[in-house]
Each structure stands twice: as structure tokens, then as C-alpha cells.
Design brief:
Elements (H helix, E strand, L loop, with lengths): L2 E8 L4 H10 L13 E9 L16 E13 L3 H11 L7 E5 L4
């Protein structure tokens, strides 16, 4: 079974809601442990383009803001449900959610 690393950027105000959604969808299992994830602060940058509805910032202006980066894991078969759950809990119109395959010898 293919395991995936999950990376999510989220404003701190929504950190707990996104973490709960992530785990409710089945992510974060490592061996005999559940709810495994790590969080650290990062600075995100983006420029909302015409037609966007930014959660933070103004269309056309480059925005920089403190965010939290959540990392966890899931099985490849869980990725679609994890993505849906995270998007539903996330405040951004286009949340950054990366799924990266893990090498497990």
C-alpha cells in the first residue's frame, strides 16, 4: 500500500478545525499510533488574481502572512476523502494541500 505525506498550509485561526478534519478522515495513523501530525509556523505569500475571493488580502496585491504548516500521513486510498475533509474545514478559496508519495523500503 502506498503511503503519502500530507502538507497543508492554514491560518492559525483554523488550525484545530483542519487538524480535526484531517484525522476524522482517517489520516495520521503510524503503526499503533493515531492522530500523528506536526505543526510549525511559516510565512505564506500569494497574489489574488481577478475573479478570486481571497480570505485575506486584496485582489491584485501580493499578500504575506503567518501560517501554520501541518504535516501528517495517510494511505493513498484515503487521499480523496482527506482532501475533501480538509477543504471543507479550510477557510481559503484555494487551500494548499500537497500529497507526496513516501519511499518505504
Amino acid at each position: 500500500m502506498t503511503r503519502l505525506k500530507i502538507e497543508i498550509s492554514v491560518p492559525e485561526s483554523h488550525l484545530e478545525a483542519v487538524v480535526e478534519a484531517l484525522h476524522a478522515a482517517g489520516a495520521g495513523h503510524v503503526g499503533e499510533y493515531a492522530r500523528c501530525h506536526s505543526v510549525w509556523k511559516v510565512t505564506g505569500s500569494w497574489q489574488p488574481l481577478p475573479g478570486s475571493r481571497p480570505y485575506l488580502g486584496d485582489v491584485g496585491a501580493v499578500q504575506h502572512s503567518e501560517e501554520c504548516r501541518i504535516e501528517s500521513v495517510c494511505d493513498a486510498g484515503q487521499a480523496a476523502s482527506v482532501r475533501r475533509a480538509v477543504r471543507d474545514a479550510h477557510p481559503y478559496e484555494e487551500p494548499v494541500i500537497h500529497f507526496l508519495p513516501l519511499y518505504e523500503p
